[in-house]
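Self-study notes.
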Amino acid sequence: MNNPLQSINAECYQTRLRHRHPHHSLTNKNTQRITSPHNPHHQPPHSSTPPQEMPQSQNSIDLELNRLNSPFSDSSSSDPDLPLTMDPPPAPKPRWLDPRPSSIFTRITTSLQPFTQYLKHILRPRLTLRYVVCSVIGVYVLYCFVTWQPFFSSRLPAYSGPHDVGAVDLEIPLEKPKRLSETLLKSTKKPAFEVESVLFTVYYPAVKGARSKGALHPWVPKPLSLTAEGYARAAGVNNFIIRPIFTFALWVLVGSIKIPAKVDVPLLGSDGEKFPVMVFSHGSVSSRTDYTHYLGELASRGHVIAALEHRDGSCPGSMVQIKNKKDRPVFLLKESDLISEPPMNDTLLKKEQLAFRTEEIMQAIRVLKDVNDGKGKDIFASSSRGEGSTLDGWKDRLDFKHLTINGHSYGATGALQALKTANTTAANPAIGGIALDPGKSSGQLNTNIPVPLLVVHSNSWSKTHSIFFGRPHFDTVLNLVRGVRDKVGSAWFLTSIGTAHPSVTDAPLLQPLLLNFATGATADVKKALGEYVKVTMDFLEFTKTSKENGVLDEAVTHEKYGEWVSKEREKSFPKEYAKYWEVHVCPLDQDK
């Protein structure tokens, strides 16, 4: 069917051609071409008359008509004088045909479409390595968020003993600061070794089911930046760029770790029940919170533990807080940070630090004795840490007849130093001592110890050959323990198989794979720490009953690390102990 508009256009064009060529007429054949410009299959009727040659003017008309009939011709642009070929102006649209305004929900949904499309794109299952890794990380972060787990560390486990465990932070000022040396801090020109207060956390057996009066203690005391700066100092990179990085790393790794002991809850038991007391000294670049599980396990078995935080310049960072005084930070110290006469060196620094530690141990014993004497309210009032509201009920609840002093690494060296006056003065009624990995670079080891002693080496501490003041460290410790045994009759030196220097700390519990990889420890983390707890309890029981239990009831198995004394002893040593222990020194009756 012909388009009427096209037919009208063709007629108009013919009229114009007539005006241009008045002496020529159009044949029917040409008219048929014009009336059917858009039908490629239309053929003119056949004629028996042979075609005649047209004049030149007629040929030009045909050429123009052919251009009009061409499917590639553009009628809208071939001649500007053809108004009928132009699109008509758009008619006004009725207002009722306009779409209704979209709702807020629709607009929000529309705006989120790019995000949802992107989300669909990244969530569609494509088993590429990047997709799998990102999915695992996402699921892990979600799991940590839902279960309140730290992102990159394990939570500290609950204590396994029969009792709940309470915790109280105490910082008690001395009546008068006690200056132990003339050494000054280079930065402030103030005394470097002057004891103003003593800070420690008390772990103790608590009433079953008691509710914590405050938030659980953080594993890294706040502010995190204080400890982070101490670590930066220890690494020798203390500057304004590295400190925030260390602080952020601490926050990510352990910022959410909480110590599971309940804060400021009542002491367990009736008025007549007493609990043995232990004072614990931490190692270098450590603090009072680095051994919480080991000490909490002892508390859950019926002991009161005072975990000291030393201000001798061996703790990464500690804040001295005394009521009505400005807080004062104490950081890790090096010889170059001090002014002394003669000039400070490593030997002199260790000597002054050990004297400072010994004084803090004595001050902690003094505070606990005041609590036991019924001065709990006064201690609570004088403490700057705001805890200890239940100490008033601790009168006559602490058993100072069975006080022991314990320490790890530098703290073990400090414990040995403090044991020099053990059970010889009213200020130091200790009846036994425990030294875990006594230091290899923390000064001379005190050999004058008048009470029973337990020394435990980690496997790495015994295995690694170290020269200590001109002789192997292992031989030095061996002779020290033998000397105590010969003097008082009871002393032990053991090696814990498969463990490393940090095995008694909380660190392997928080990062078991990392610590085992870094230290070479092979023992199961929890089992190894459990063995430390067990042998400590056996020693504490010995101080009360004089009865040897467990591995403490065994004769010597190895006089040298890794070498059995005989094939017969190897066969007779119980397998339950052989898996975890080597016995180097024991009491004389067992040795025979």
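Second protein, same conventions, sequence then structure:
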Amino acid sequence: MYSSYVKRNNARITNNVCDKVVKLAENETEQVVENFRRRNQTLGLNKNSPVKLQMDGTYQRVHIKSRHKMGQNASQAIGIACENETDNHDIIGFHLVNKLCWVGAWLRGKGYDVECPNHEYCTANTNIYDPLSEKDLGYEIGKKMAKLDLLVDYCTTDGDAKSVQGLQEAMQEIFDPLWSVNRLADTIHRGQSQFREVLRAKI
């Protein structure tokens, strides 16, 4: 009895802390954007000048593919966008995709017909069968940046990522149908690809 009470109390406290951490992160992001606008004005630029980003996504698994089961080998993905204008490279956009839900798993184990993410206290924000996509991460980050009235003109990513395409779709949907986000190659991945091509070359 006491153990179940402690678990419920810990869960309630954790939920309250999580909400406050999310609010704190959002406030800090707004402050970073405001500082960026003040910097633009100091440099004589329009305070709403487009921002240059660097963006990447990661999964909670080392390998996204699995030999032992169909589909992806991950259940969480996070995309992070940092401004590429200053030496600080502050985070100004992020999005987490989560398929994990302990409540849903527990209810299904008890025989209830529930589906994530459509039930109360669900921690998942996507269906377990939906593929994790960096393009979707870029789109969601783009929507969040649009709420801050931030346009993006250049974004640095690795070569195999579609995040820029998702970011551009969000910008076109909210700001301008003809807006274009230009992708810049990540120097590390570009250097690695050039090194591999040199090894393959027949000299």
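Instructor comment on the second fold: The domain at 50-198 is CATH 3.30.420 (Nucleotidyltransferase; domain 5).
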